[in-house]
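request received
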Amino acid sequence: MSEADQLARRVADVLLAREGTGPAWGLVIEDALEGYARVRMRLRDDMLNGHKTAHGGMIFALADSAFAYACNSRNEATVAQNATIAFLAPARAGDVLVAEAKELSRAGKNGVYQVSVKTAAGRVVAEFTGFSRTVSGAVL
Amino acid sequence: MSEADQLARRVADVLLAREGTGPAWGLVIEDALEGYARVRMRLRDDMLNGHKTAHGGMIFALADSAFAYACNSRNEATVAQNATIAFLAPARAGDVLVAEAKELSRAGKNGVYQVSVKTAAGRVVAEFTGFSRTVSGAVL
Amino acid sequence: MSEADQLARRVADVLLAREGTGPAWGLVIEDALEGYARVRMRLRDDMLNGHKTAHGGMIFALADSAFAYACNSRNEATVAQNATIAFLAPARAGDVLVAEAKELSRAGKNGVYQVSVKTAAGRVVAEFTGFSRTVSGAVL
Amino acid sequence: MSEADQLARRVADVLLAREGTGPAWGLVIEDALEGYARVRMRLRDDMLNGHKTAHGGMIFALADSAFAYACNSRNEATVAQNATIAFLAPARAGDVLVAEAKELSRAGKNGVYQVSVKTAAGRVVAEFTGFSRTVSGAVL
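response:
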């Protein structure tokens, strides 16, 4: 594993440990590399909307977390500016959702990341695009 | 209060009662009218990211909830297709966030809603645009 | 008319005069105020896609122009960072499209604008949300 | 070349021949495969904004065209529902812009496509995500 990928993993682990959300959601980091992250979460009853399917906010939250680990992976503090999500199919209680974030582009302080959210069985649930901005400071 | 607005309020109350998310987040419906909803939530520690500010997923989730109540307000089952959010300023633990959803347009089964997320003091935190699609069935 | 609104109109007129696009498209500025612009364009055959309806790129281009005049209205050079558009109904050759841009929020260098695109008869065609960033320099 | 890819090429060629926009813009199809398209366009003076850089509308229009060829590639009539674009760096008169559209997901009638816009030299200009909906009918 390259030093860049080792750094990425450390950053993701530290971010998760610091945050209130990931632990509260049962979020697990499956992989974190330079410009890349894959996380998963099991859908609980308290993550469902009034139709008894995954609340869009929780699907977004999982994708946004993968995006955060990927865009901070170089240990340069980076924040989300903007994000878009398309909801393609519902998910239900007990489903394990996996969000995989890949870096599409970087230009100056701006970055673009594409995140696919699928069930563990590989059925697509949502596609997310995130736009980041690097600010001053390091994560670690 | 018009019958349409009374119906909107009943739909929102029923949706909130049915869902796992709103009660888990402490979400409160301040107002629900035809094509309109305003909700609030107090930011808890388990809603913060690794920078100790509101996780984008929770800001989105609040806006998405207001959007859901607004786009289902006519008691025609309606789902989110797509949403975009811009994060404009951070929010912190203890802040009360208010999301206000307004209907911009409807055309056939499609609707567009604009949701502003502000602190109770009126400072803007995020702007959200949601695109909905009416499906078959009623909410109530 | 306030000084701020007079300045907005001058900025919009100058931007239109400088650009290659607006004159090529027959774009007309109907109104330009602080944080606001309304423009129109008649759809020509060379603006249609393979279905003989308005090409999404031309609908976007009209909305993006209104957004540009609105977000530069204070004579502080401002650029588009990001934009989202929902296409709600088709438009056809000969239709006059009107794009009306309104400022939703500003926070630091960031701004959010909502642009509705309708036919002159008032039928909604698209809803656009634009995210701007103020850079250094003035327009005039 | 597979039959699916041959069909995709025919669909793209027919769409371009039918439309008013592509020929007016000097758009060239470099490649069109199942779920994929790559197109290019040289930036002319009448495609520039008031800052003398590529108008966002023209960058979007090029990406949207690649998206249209990709999402119609199976000869099932498909329209854009929604699109998001991030502008990452300016482009100037004379630059050749290349837009490459790839299919991310399909679920029922919905599809998601990612389009990168770069200069011929490979410098990224914009990233676009398009959401499509298949309607009834064929293209050819």
